[in-house]
Amino acid sequence: MTFVKANNGLVKSFDGLMNDFFNELPSFGKAIRQDVFAFPPVNIVEKNDHYHLQVSAPGFEKTDFNVKLDGNILTITGEKKEETKSETDKVIRNEFSAKSFKRSFTLDDKIDAAKIAAKYENGILHIGLPKKEEEKAVAQQISIQ
User: Which of 25, 31, 78, 129 has a CA 20 to 30 Å removed from the CA of 49?
Assistant: First the structure.
């Protein structure tokens, strides 16, 4: 393949164009996944005594979230409505819009549901899912008859 060099950076080889196209696909797919399906990315970290969920939701306020536990299903919803302003200015382009999402997670019996806590800080919703303390088997002496 012959490479074409140009000082202005506008002319590329076919190979360079193909590399750029395929290298951009993952970010293109990520943009589609976040815009169309509206799933915010979630990190789940297991610690010794709890699980830690981190939901990336920048631009939301803590009042925009609803975290609900129904049985063993933890549901996180977020809704940010578009603010409408009646000003005399002409809007040329408006890319702000309403955002909403809903994520559900199935919890097992190891989670202490009464102690689940949530906090929103710097665009990340933190949810702590404490583990139940394991019941330790008590050794007992069995008498022989």
Answer: 78
